[in-house]
Structure formats: C-alpha cells, structure tokens
Amino acid sequence: MRAWASCRIIAGMRLPSVALRTPLLVLLVLPLGCVSPSKSAQRKPAPSSQRSTTASAQRAPTPARAAPPEPRAAPASSAKDFALEMVQAHNEARREARPTPKPPLPPLVWSDAAARQAASWAKACKFEHNPNRGDLGENLAAATPDMWGTAQVVKSWADEASDYDHTRNTCRKGKVCGHYTQVVWRKTTGVGCATVLCKKNSPFGASFPTWQLWVCNYTPPGNFVGQRPY
C-alpha cells in the first residue's frame, strides 16, 4: 500500500489589489511519494518581514537509520505546555472536520515515541521530510520567529479543509490538502511534535537566516492512496 504526499509553500506577503488572495501560495503536488520543498524554497524572498511555509508527507514505512543531528535552540514554552497545546489544537481540528464524521473522530493522544522522532529530525534544521522516520506520518511547518504559535501552525494545516473534496477524496484542482487529511485521519491515534529555532538552511533565503521549524509525526500514519481520511 502506497501513501501520497503533498508540499505547500506559503509566502506571508501582501499583494497589490489584484484578484488574488493573501497569502500567496506556491504549490507542489505529486500523487505518490514525498515532494521535497527545496527547489521552491530557493525562490527569491519577497520583501516582507515575516514568511511561513508548510509541508506534509506520508509514505510506506522504512527503517529508521539516521543518527540524531546536533542540538539546536529549544522552544520557548515548556515541553509539557507544548505537548498539551499541540494535542488540543489537533483535536479541535478533528472536532471541526467537515463533512461531520460519523461516528465522531476519536481524539489524539500525545505519543512520546513520535515526539522523539520529531525532535531528532527537527534538530537537523532542514525543511524537508525525514526519509528514515519509520512507520510515521509527518507534517512540517516553518516561519520567521514569533510569527506563529502552536495553534496557528495546526490551523495552517487544518485550513486546507476548504481545498479537500470529500466526495471525490481528492484535493481541489491546483490545491494541496494532505496536511489536513493527516490531521483528521481516523485511524491515527497519536501525535508527537517538536519545534526548534534554526540559523541555517533557511527556506526563505539569506534575507531571513533565522527561522522556526515545526515537525509533527503521527501514529499510525495516514494519507494512504485509495483510502478516505474518515
């Protein structure tokens, strides 16, 4: 069974008064496998003081082999508060899934194992998916420091609900919805996340050298081809 993946880049910039909505979306989608955001992330930064980007991917499991990267800066909030906020934000999104799931989606619980995997990968400060994450789903987000809190990160994934066609079980044409479908995947029961401040590998270019990365891993993983989230 193969899982599908999607990557989305959001530039937090304001546009002239044209028939486009803010923020500007640059989308990369493949029906199978993970799409690396690296090429799109090399686009010249827009003249803005804040930028953000998200990515989501799930795939067939592979053994975890990578050694833990060197440590980077720790998040500002306590680990306990961060875990609580992440679980609450995910479960709020699951309660608000549309169309309404019947029966309701079970709430997620915090997974220490998924959180350890997320933390190990986040320390590498790479805005790309962990190829050695094993049997885990994964959502990523990146922004300039202090732009997003925990709730805003999960909301950026959940907001893709408007681009998901539940009847056809597809993203709307030209849109990305894989972050949302992972968040509301019925068979997923646990989530573990990590966030770090990075000073290298900025997906926003040299104008924004310091950035914040979020990694959430999910167990069991979602987004399997041919299956509905619920």
UniProtKB/TrEMBL annotation:
Residue ranges, annotated region (Disordered): 37-109
Bilayer-spanning residue ranges: none
All copies of domain SCP, residue ranges: 81-226
Protein name as it appears in the record: SCP-like family protein
Positions with biased composition (Low complexity): 51-65
One Gene Ontology cellular component annotation held by this UniProt entry: extracellular region
